[in-house]
Specification:
This is DUF2254 domain-containing protein. This protein has 467 residues and is of the alpha+beta class. It is built from 17 helices and 8 strands. The strands form 2 sheets. The chain has a 5-stranded mixed sheet, with helices on one face. Strands 4-2-6 form a 3-stranded antiparallel sheet, with no helix packed on it. A hairpin with a 5-residue loop joins strand 7 and strand 8.
Length: 467
C-alpha cells in the first residue's frame, strides 16, 4: 500500500498531529527547557574561559574598558554572589508561584494548572535562573590567584558574561512576576483556555476534509464483518490521550482486519476493559485475531491526565469546571459563571459549524479498515449545559445567559441534529425554570429568552434579542 494513501486515510493522526502530540507532551513538562539551558550554560562555562586564555592579552583597550577589570578575589566574589543569589531567587520565586497556583486551582479549577505548566515564560524563567547559576559556578572554578600556586588568571570575558546574565535574570524576574500577576486573573485564564480549545477544534475538526478522507460509512457497511469480533482491551487505567490512526490502519491492512475504537481521547478507561474490537472477516483464526487485538491496544495511549492534543473537548471541560466552581456555595460568584459561559458559547458555536462524524480509515481499494467513534454534538452540548443548568438553577442571571448560549449555538448549528439538540436543551432549561420560585418579572425575561432560542432554531428572527 502506498504510504501517502495510508497516511491520508488514517484520519486525524497525520504526521503533523503526531508532532503535535509529542510537542504537547514536552510543553507540559517543566524540565526540558531548563535542562537544555543548564547544559548550554555548562558548555559556555567551559569554553569561554578557554577563549579568555587565548585572546585576553590581545584585546584592544576599547574592549577591555567595558569588560570586568577586577582581580581574582573580586571575580570570585562576584561569581559567588551571582550563584548564591540566583539559586535563592529561583527557590523563592517558584515557591511563591506554587502557592499562587494552589490558590488559583482552589478558586477556579485544578485542571487549569495545566495552562501554567505549559506556559513558555515559566519555562524560560526557570531556564534563565538555573543557567545563570550553573554558568557562574562553572566559571568560578577557573579563576586563579597567585596564592593558589598557579599563574594568575581572571577570565574577563567570562566574568562579564556572568554579570550580564545576572542583570538579565533580574529583568526576567520582573517580567515573570508581572506575567504571573496577569495570568492568574480569571479573564486571562479563560481566554487562554478558549484560545487553546479553538486551535484544537481547527486542528482536529476541520471544515473541509480531503477527498476520500473520513468518507462516512455506507449503511450496513460494517454490520456483517464485526458480528464475530474480538475485544481490544485497555493497556492501563487512565485517560485516553492519543489514538495512532496511521499505525492502526497499517496493522489492519497487513492483517486484513477491521478495527473499531469506541473510546475517544478524553475518555477514562480501566485496564483490561474493552476500548474497541477487531475482526478478520476473511480468516476464522480467532487466536490470531486475539494476538492482533493485544498488539493494537498499545496504539491507544493512556495517560494520567487529559490533554488537548487529540481532545478538543478538554478545553470545554475546563471552562465548565470554572463555571460550576463559581456557582458552588463556597464561592458564590455568578458573575464569573456568566463571564465563562461567554467563552463556552464561543467554543460551542465554533464546533457547531463543523461536521461531527466518526473517523474512518480505508485502504487503497476503499475498504474500511478503521472506525473510531467520536462524541456527537448532542453529547458535547449536553456536557457543557447540563452541569451549569443543575448548579445554577436558582440564579435567573445564569439561566438567562444559558438561554442566550443556546440561541447563539442554534444560529451557528449547521445540521438538523444540532438544532434538535438545542431544542432538547431548551426544553430542559424551561423545565428547570418552572421548578424555581422566581418572581413574575424574572419569569417574563426568561420566557422571552426562550422564545429567542425557538426563533433561532427555526431560522426566523422577529425582532432584537431580549435583554
Amino acid at each position: 500500500m502506498d504510504p501517502w494513501v495510508r497516511m491520508r486515510n488514517s484520519g486525524p493522526m497525520t504526521v503533523q498531529r503526531r508532532l503535535t502530540t509529542v510537542r504537547d507532551s514536552l510543553r507540559t513538562q517543566l524540565w526540558p527547557v531548563p535542562t537544555a539551558a543548564v547544559v548550554l550554560a555548562l558548555v559556555a562555562g567551559v569554553l569561554l574561559p578557554e577563549l579568555d586564555r587565548a585572546i585576553d592579552d590581545r584585546l584592544p583597550g576599547a574592549v577591555t574598558d567595558v569588560l570586568f577589570g577586577g582581580g581574582a578575589s573580586a571575580a570570585r566574589t562576584l561569581l559567588d554572589a551571582i550563584a548564591s543569589s540566583l539559586i535563592t531567587v529561583t527557590s523563592l520565586t517558584f515557591s511563591l508561584t506554587v502557592v499562587t497556583l494552589q490558590l488559583a486551582s482552589g478558586q477556579y479549577s485544578p485542571r487549569l494548572l495545566r495552562t501554567f505548566t505549559r506556559d513558555r515564560l515559566v519555562h524560560v524563567t526557570l531556564g534563565v535562573f538555573l543557567a545563570t547559576f550553573a554558568y557562574a559556578l562553572t566559571v568560578l572554578r577557573t579563576v586563579r590567584s597567585p596564592d593558589d600556586d598557579q599563574p594568575l588568571f581572571v577570565p574577563q570575558i567570562s566574568v562579564t558574561v556572568g554579570f550580564v546574565l545576572a542583570v538579565g535574570s533580574v529583568v526576567v524576574l520582573v517580567v515573570f512576576l508581572a506575567h504571573l500577576a496577569r495570568e492568574i486573573r480569571l479573564e486571562t485564564m479563560v481566554r487562554n483556555v478558549g484560545a487553546d480549545a479553538s486551535a484544537a477544534i481547527d486542528r482536529l475538526v476541520p471544515d473541509n476534509r480531503p477527498d476520500g478522507e473520513d468518507r462516512p460509512l455506507a449503511p450496513g457497511e460494517l454490520a456483517g464483518p464485526l458480528q464475530d469480533a474480538v475485544p481490544i482491551l485497555a493497556s492501563g487505567s487512565g485517560f485516553v490521550t492519543a489514538v495512532d490512526h496511521a499505525a492502526l490502519v497499517d496493522r489492519a491492512v497487513k492483517a486484513e482486519a477491521v478495527v473499531v475504537i469506541d473510546r475517544s481521547p478524553g475518555a477514562f478507561v480501566v485496564a483490561g476493559t474493552p476500548i474497541g474490537r477487531v475482526c478478520r472477516p476473511t480468516v476464522g483464526d480467532r487466536e490470531a485475531v486475539s494476538d492482533l487485538a493485544r498488539s493494537l491496544s498499545r496504539l491507544v495511549t493512556v495517560g494520567v491526565e487529559r490533554t488537548d492534543a487529540q481532545d478538543w473537548t478538554f478545553g470545554l471541560r475546563q471552562l465548565t469546571d470554572v463555571t460550576v466552581r463559581a456557582l458552588s456555595p463556597g464561592v458564590n460568584d455568578p458573575t464569573t459563571a456568566v463571564h465563562t459561559l461567554g467563552y463556552t458559547s464561543a467554543l460551542l458555536c465554533r464546533a457547531a459549524r463543523r461536521p461531527h462524524q466518526d473517523h474512518v480509515g480505508r485502504d487503497d481499494s476503499g475498504r474500511v479498515r478503521l472506525l473510531r467513534t467520536v462524541p456527537t454534538f448532542e453529547e458535547v452540548l449536553d456536557a457543557a449545559v447540563t452541569p451549569v443548568r443543575r448548579y445554577g438553577a436558582a440564579d435567573p442571571t445564569v439561566l438567562a445567559r444559558l438561554l442566550q448560549l443556546l440561541r447563539e449555538v442554534a444560529w451557528s448549528a449547521q445540521t438538523p441534529d444540532s438544532q434538535v439538540a438545542v431544542a432538547d436543551q431548551l426544553a430542559r432549561v424551561r423545565a428547570t425554570v418552572r421548578a424555581q420560585d422566581f418572581d413574575a418579572a424574572e419569569l417574563r425575561q426568561l420566557d422571552a429568552h426562550g422564545r429567542d432560542v425557538e426563533q433561532a432554531t427555526t431560522g426566523r428572527w422577529y425582532g432584537p434579542p431580549s435583554r
